[in-house]
Amino acid sequence: MLRVYGFSKVNAFARGNTRDLRVLWALEEMQLPFEIAGMDHPAHDLSTEAYRQLSPFEQIPSIDDDGVVLSESAAILLYLAKKSGHLIPADRAGEAQVMRWCFAAMNTVEPPLLNLMVLNWTSQGSCEKHRDFLTGWANRVLKNLERWLADREFVATGSFTVADILMAHVLSVIKDEALIAPYARVVSYRDRCMERPAWKRTIEAYCARVVAG
Ligand SMILES: N[C@@H](CCC(=O)N[C@@H](CS)C(=O)NCC(=O)O)C(=O)O
Fold it and tell me: Which of 71, 156, 188, 197 could form a disulfide linkage to 97, CB 3.0–4.6 angstroms apart?
């Protein structure tokens, strides 16, 4: 049985935004059976030798699929898509586009957004120079994504794929709507993805199960 390691308890700020949601959303879309191993972050469940065997950086998510052990949300989603034949095209060219946009979500779009979020958590004083730099970086990425989405419903192919789960989830960390509002196509793309019934079921089940602490 596929076992997904996700949070059972996590700090209140992170609850509802954690990356195990990407895996849970994909599994809900694919309708694959799985069990959850709930991990208590404040109790240091991730910082054990046993868990490091699954996830070398002591992070969520990871999976153990009858001995296939993976961490890294993008790697897990690509594995599940290939395994199930869902949310990825069967042809090599289509698959390559999905891989390209999974990497773009993780390596190009997530870094400035995540850095801005971390600055907001940790900054003391104005940090204006740092904030201006990160805001400029985020805007450059969002502007180019806006251009890419001009005639596209989904980011990698004509249909919803695992790349959209990653990209929409990355965009959903933007809590400052003023940052994303100028990019109307990015906003409607994010909303189109997050309005999917599978996402709604996923976040509802997560909120019922995962405790803040
Ligand atoms: N690149 C990893 C990042 C995973 C990650 O940052 N996970 C966070 C939760 S969303 C985590 O486990 N943080 C706990 C910690 O680092 O102590 C992925 O995409 O899976």
Answer: 156
Which of 4, 57, 60, 110 has most ligand 1 atoms within 8 Å of CB, for mutation?
A: 60
CA–CA separation, 112 and 81 (whole Å) = 27
Q: Could you tell me which residues come within 8 angstroms of residue 6 by beta carbon, excluding any fewer than 6 positions away?
A: 18, 20, 23, 24, 36, 37, 38, 39, 60, 61, 206, 210
Q: Please tell me the distance between residue 59's alpha carbon and the centre of ligand 1 in angstroms.
A: 4
Span from the CA of 74 to the centroid of ligand 1 (angstroms):
12
Domain boundaries, the chain: 2-87+198-212, 92-196
Mutate to test the pocket of ligand 1, among 18, 19, 72 (most ligand atoms within 8 A of CB): 19
Cα 12 to middle of ligand 1, angstroms: 15
Question: Cβ < 6 Å from ligand 1: which residues?
Answer: 18-19, 46, 58-61, 72-73
- State which fold the 2-87+198-212 domain adopts: Glutaredoxin (3.40.30)
CATH fold for domain 92-196:
Glutathione S-transferase Yfyf (Class Pi); Chain A, domain 2 (1.20.1050)
Q: List pLDDT tens digits, range 146-190.
A: 999 999 999 999 999 999 999 999 999 998 999 999 999 999 999
Look up the pTM and report it. Answer: 0.98
If you ran DSSP here, which 8-state letter would residue 108 be given?
A: I
Distance 212 CA to ligand 1 centre (A): 16
pLDDT, tens digit (0-9, with 9 covering 90-100), for 73-110:
999 999 999 999 999 999 999 999 999 999 999 999 99
